[in-house]
Design brief:
By secondary structure, the protein is of the alpha/beta class. It is built from 20 helices and 22 strands. Strands 11, 12, 13, 14, 15, 16, 17, 20, 21 and 22 form a ten-stranded mixed beta sheet that branches. Helix 1 packs across helix 2 and helix 5 runs parallel beside helix 6. The longest helix is centred in the N-terminal third of the chain and has 24 residues.
Amino acid sequence: MNLIARLTHLVRLGVQHGPRMASKLPQAWRVYRKAGWQGMVWELRRRVRKTNDYANWVATYDTLTAETRTAITQRVAAMQAPPLISIVMPTYNPNPVHLRAAIESVRAQLYPHWELCIADDASTAAEVRSILEFYRDSDPRIKVVFRPKNGHISFASNSALELVTGPWIALMDHDDLLPEHALFWMVDCIAKHPDARLIYSDEDKIDESGQRSDPYFKPDWNIDLFRSQNMFSHLGVLSTELVRSVGGFRVGLEGSQDWDLVMRCMEHVDAWQVQHVPRVLYHWRVHAESTARSMNAKPYAAIAGERALNEHYQRIGVKAVAEYQQFGYRTRYVLPDELPLVSIIIPTRNGLDLMRQCIQSIDKKTTYGRYEIIIVDNGSDDPAALAYFAKLAERANVRVLRDERPFNYSALNNAAVAAARGDVIALVNNDIEVMSPDWLLEMVGIALQPGVGAIGARLWYPDMTLQHGGVVLGLGLGMASHAHKGLPRGLNGYAGRAALTQSFSAVTAACMVVRKSTYEQVGGLDEVNLAVAFNDIDFCLRLREAGYRNVWTPYAELMHHESATRGDDMAPDKRKRFEREIAYMKSRWADVIANDPAYSPNLTLDAEDFSYAWPPRVERI
């Protein structure tokens, strides 16, 4: 797009959206510096769409009425043995206005069975002490301890923890706010999941004027995302017994002490004992010193997080090294001294130029030193392509399997896996081109971890917009689509999720790595019901059903020249087959498709850009 066309496009956006766009221009300029023109236009379009008008969303779906307050009060009254929630709040020289607001937000809770345990870490501001004494003396549910010497946030948090008498603790900063229904929904979750030990909610930010923004609508428990960022965060509610059993907050981890605490706690529970409440139950205060604005406000927090994560891996016996990446953490898993053989399986019919591009990029750019290539020739008849395959077959690490049957993607790959010599399988489309040399090192490292099923890569279109950032169920024809599809390179996506390692329900087989034993355990791809479409999604869901988690990594980057050889699924000769495959998927996986744990019910199913859902798919009172 030339300069005149770009400016014209920008003017058109301005005419369409007027003041709303003008208010977003500073953010868009920052995006332009990172991701260029494409990124700026993407960000402007996303921010000015009505589906991303958070103030309107809050007014419509997250503002209590008199009726909802009454309904909540009635549900609280009907609770059997409602638990005491002990809110732990360390304080040190907070803004007095913010401190009062924080305490008042606790006192305004519709759920009355709480205690507020405050430890002041020797604040030097006299007003802080008088505020805390006032609330301690006026409300018996508020306990305060004044530390004689400043010891930083871990010491202070442990002092507050000593005041706790309830079976559950909630973590709260001294300048943040709880909405009035926060504790109710947490206790509601405890009642529904009595074996839960760790519970977290969604969160947003709030400025000095009370304007809410930037909601983080989180997925359900996602250990790989948690290891990439503190997605647990706020509002976090933890079993008091569990917190005390791991020793409370650790001194030396200040800035990431909450993340470290949750890491140590979750090492002692099962995944299903970590529950998510998909509601905004915490408002982070945005100000210059707040990590709600930027981690740069507390660079020591990033360093502490790195240490916490590395020590977590040491405790659980995982050989890995974590490092901070400005917007999250990257984990590199240490491979065994003897690398496992990887069988790279590439089905094709003719496609000489694509195959040459694919093979050459693997040979020239892949740093992983031990792999074989299995070319599945599905009835090629191009003499040049056949000659190229024959030449490749002369190499010691290349085999060509001739398969004359009608195209059945599942069957072709299953036959190749059966013939593969490797302990690890890499399914690769013939229109894939390697970008990052360590793509296979990254994917194999994750695949070898306990409990991991399929690994997916970050795939780019030739125009450097995102093609695959993980698969979200329910998107696109009500079936599935790719997260952040079309996102320009240089942008990190919603809450950084286009640039962080995480679990997804499914990943694409255009570039997928999985252990051969795991592949065979679940029966491989379904060649009976899903010959062409959705076989990779079904495969991943069967892996998940068998107890594995599927992981997507942004650090294995490849280009996907998608649909360069494949026809249109909606062409008349393929429509019936495509509709049969959709019908099978909906009959087999209806419940899972409707409730993807890797995607929030507060986010839309109508687009891949993580816009807000209108309405959200959550229980309403």
